[in-house]
């Protein structure tokens, strides 16, 4: 384990009051490193804790292991930092951390999440809905049913700060009973990372790599290929959603991307625009002359990234038949 992880275990064992007092003696970079470790380490076996912190043997033997979570980090930080600064640090960590439970839960298919929530008490449901992304909560709430929704909302309105151990228990349950079953494992995250990398590779290079991987790892590579989302797949978007994606890029990105696109793809893009905008775009493409393949690839990648970004925040969506390709793409 790293030094930051070992320190994180010490702070968790000390508790919020003593841990917070000790953390005041550290500089900002040390606080950030330890907070990141606390937020991402999850549950630590008692045997590992005992090995690292022998001086805490009596306490650990009585209580068992410790659990690191975003709420545990929040409890420590709020002892000596203003609420605004705590929120800033945790938001920064949350946006860059793969293992954040609430981030992963927000990206989960709504049907899978509702299946779990349907068996939970309304108070637990209320807690979860206050921590996932608003757009994800907005999808889930109607699916709970008209009889449950008002009660859940009322509980959210009356909610006070919950004890850290309560939040930790909910996070642990979600990690083990929801995310794990949904495939949010290390293997799934690595696969998602490879999908993102392959999407950005030069087409010729990817073709060469593909031939090798098809021989060495045929099953795994086929699974990755099925989840890839490339520029040509943009034709799967409805015209109004494609328009939103095009507005996300600026400069000559769009004309450059279309200048090197396949004819049917280029025509679909143009057909989705109003006649005036379409004419201006065509003139811009014609005035460009020859373009470099590398520049075209970069421009097309920008459009793909814009599409994935809008899909992640719920602004646009693919037709139902194409949604599987984007599973785990935002990890």
How does this model look, in words?
InterPro entries: Flg_Motor_Flig, Flg_Motor_Flig_C, FliG_a-hlx, FliG_M, FliG_N. Residues 212-318 form the Flagellar motor switch protein FliG C-terminal domain. It is found in: Bacterial flagellum basal body; Cell membrane. Residues 111-180 form the Flagellar motor switch protein FliG middle domain. Belongs to the FliG family. The chain has 331 residues and is mainly α. The chain has three domains: 3-96, no CATH class; 101-179, Flagellar motor switch protein FliG, alpha-alpha superhelical domain (Annexin V, domain 1, Orthogonal Bundle); 229-326, Annexin V, domain 1 (Orthogonal Bundle). Helices cover 67% and strands 1% of the residues. It contains 20 helices and two strands. It has helices at 3-23, 28-40, 46-52, 57-63, 70-77, 83-96, 101-106, 110-117, 122-129, 134-143, 149-157, 164-179, 186-200, 203-216, 218-227, 239-246, 253-259, 263-271, 275-286, 293-312; strands spanning 43-44, 66-67. It has a two-stranded antiparallel sheet with strand order 1-2. Helix 1 (3-23) packs across helix 2 (28-40) and helix 1 (3-23) runs parallel beside helix 5. The radius of gyration is 24 Å and the shape is globular. The protein starts with a helix and ends in a 19-residue tail after the last helix. Residues 95-99 and 320-331 have low confidence and may be disordered.
Secondary structure topology:
Blueprint: H1 3-23, H2 28-40, E1 43-44, H3 46-52, H4 57-63, E2 66-67, H5 70-77, H6 83-96, H7 101-106, H8 110-117, H9 122-129, H10 134-143, H11 149-157, H12 164-179, H13 186-200, H14 203-216, H15 218-227, H16 239-246, H17 253-259, H18 263-271, H19 275-286, H20 293-312
Antiparallel strand pairs: 1-2
Helix pairs in contact: 1-2, 1-5, 2-5, 5-6, 5-12, 8-10, 9-11, 14-15, 17-19, 17-20
């Amino acid at each position: 384990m790293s030094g930051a992880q070992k320190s994180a275990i010490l702070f968790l064992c000390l508790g919020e009051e003593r841990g917070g007092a000790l953390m005041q003696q550290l500089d900002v970079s040390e606080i950030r490193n330890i907070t990141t470790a606390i937020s991402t380490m999850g549950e630590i076996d008692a045997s590992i804790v005992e090995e690292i912190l022998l001086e805490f043997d009596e306490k650990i033997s009585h209580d068992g292991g410790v659990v690191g979570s975003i709420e545990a980090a929040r409890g420590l930080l709020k002892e000596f930092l203003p609420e605004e600064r705590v929120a800033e640090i945790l938001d920064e960590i949350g946006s860059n951390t793969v293992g954040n439970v609430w981030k992963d839960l927000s990206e989960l298919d709504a049907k899978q999440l509702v299946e779990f929530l349907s068996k939970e008490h309304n108070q637990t449901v209320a807690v979860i809905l206050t921590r996932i992304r608003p757009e994800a909560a907005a999808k889930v709430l109607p699916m709970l049913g008209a009889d449950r929704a008002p009660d859940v909302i009322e509980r959210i309105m009356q909610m006070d700060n919950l004890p850290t151990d309560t939040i930790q228990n909910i996070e642990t349950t979600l990690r083990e009973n929801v995310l794990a079953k949904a495939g949010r494992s290390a293997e799934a995250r690595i696969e998602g990372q490879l999908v993102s990398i392959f999407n950005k590779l030069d087409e010729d290079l990817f073709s060469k790599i593909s031939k090798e991987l098809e021989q060495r790892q045929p099953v795994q590579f086929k699974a990755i290929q099925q989840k890839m989302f490339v520029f040509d797949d943009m034709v799967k978007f409805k015209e109004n959603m494609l328009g939103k994606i095009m507005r996300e890029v600026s400069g000559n990105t769009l004309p450059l991307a279309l200048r090197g696109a396949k004819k049917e793809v280029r025509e679909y893009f143009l057909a989705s625009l109003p006649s005036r905008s379409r004419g201006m775009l065509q003139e811009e493409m014609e005035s460009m002359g020859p373009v470099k393949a590398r520049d075209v690839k970069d421009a097309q990648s920008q459009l793909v990234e814009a599409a994935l970004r809008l899909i992640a925040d719920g602004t646009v969506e693919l037709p139902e038949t194409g949604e599987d390709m984007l599973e785990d793409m935002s990890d």
